[in-house]
Amino acid sequence: MPVDYHFSFGPWNIHEGADPFGPTVRPTVTFAKKLKAYKQLGFDGVQFHDDDAVPQVDSKTAAQVRKEAKAVRKMLAGEGLVAEFVAPRLWEDPRGIDGGYTANDPKARRWAIDRSKRAADIARELGCDLMVLWLAREGTYIRESKPAINAHRWLLEAINAILKHDPKIRIAIEPKPNEPMDHAYIPTIGHALALASRACDPKRVGGLIETAHAILAGLDPSDEMAFALSAGKLWSVHLNDQNGLKFDQDKTFGSANLRRAFDQVWVLEQGGYPQTGAFVGLDVKAMRTQKAESATLHLANSRRVFLALLDKARSFDMDLWRQCIGDRDYETLDLAILEHLMGV
Ligand code: GLO
Ligand code: MG
Questions:
Q1: Which residues on adjacent β-strands are paired with residue 169?
Q2: Which of 30, 35, 74, 285 sits between 20 and 30 A of 81, alpha carbons compared?
């Protein structure tokens, strides 16, 4: 019997619709109200930024942070939800303006590591052992502005400091080639896993692959996933879609390229992803035009597309597949996949 997939998203995926050119267009939904939406939408995992769980985390003592995180765990349990991961949100604080772990200012680097340790404490109190590092501002607008060789060593030092702080925590690096920075230091899963292999405890460092980020790097997301799966290092995914090399769009899964979405589902199936216990995260955003009362459809719809494609992956004629592979007849295979997806 195939093991079922479990779905997750972060509270930031229900949002007010502001973009760089215009203000919010929908009212803020409280955290408690967002939690209520999870089950209704078919989700049971919650992804957290550290300050989603404990607001103003920097202004609180370590004990206070742990206490507040404990209370959030109770809220989760009350809704039948679990925490999937915690990510230190270093990119919104003024101290992280030039990056956290790779800031030129040593005080900023220390702050970033301290804050990440707090994030690990929050994860422990929420009952999860996974920390995601989306390295938002760890890069440059102009290459000459940071000592890049040192910056990579500082990244490694930060990862090691977090691993030493909490002997149970696992770190999943979420690579992205650009945005907000022009050049990001860890653009692909290859970079992430190379860094992981040099950590003080390599088995506790892996990756999270986001569809849009792979596309922005000019790569195929399913190939990036296959690379991580082959090493047992795909610890979460952020499925969404992306229409070419533009800003990070976070479109509904499959909405720009259904075949590419199918390939991601196919590779997760082949890689035994659900058996690893990892969640299928959907890092999607509603269109700015969406009215408040239906601004969670992008989440339900993404899950629905995933499940429909899962059905397609599981019902593909594998005898035909074997025959095509044996005959080296990839034209026939290509059409068979297209017709299967089109339902003809
Ligand atoms: C932005 C990222 C972002 C992260 C999230 C978790 O491009 O995808 O949404 O996934 O902040 O760290
Ligand atoms: Mg993401």
A1: none
A2: 285
Measured distance CA(304)–CA(42) in Å, rounded: 9
Cα–Cα distance, 96 to 180 (Å, whole number):
12
Mean per-residue pLDDT for 67-87? 98
- Give the number of the atom of ligand 1 that is nearest the alpha carbon of residue 174: 10
Q: What is the pLDDT of residue 2?
A: 55
Contact (Cβ atoms closer than 8 angstroms) between residue 46 and residue 76: yes
Q: Of 91, 159, 158, 170, whose CA–CA distance to 123 is shortest? A: 170
Could you read off the pLDDT of 26-54 as tens digits, one per residue? 999 999 999 999 999 999 999 999 999 99
Sign of the Cα pseudo-torsion (282, 134, 173, 67, in order): negative
Domains of the chain: 7-315 (3.20.20.150)
Catalytic residue flag (residue 49)? yes
Give the nearest ligand 1 atom to 208 CA: 10
Reported pTM: 0.97
The CB of 337 under 6 Å from ligand 1? The reply is: no
Any ligand 1 atom below 6 A from CB of 263 = no
Yes or no: say if 269 and 313 are a contact pair by the CB < 8 Å rule.
Answer: yes
Q: Is 283 in the pocket of ligand 1 (CB under 6 A)?
A: yes
- Beta carbons within 8 Å of 170's beta carbon, 6+ residues apart: 129, 130, 131, 204, 205, 206, 235
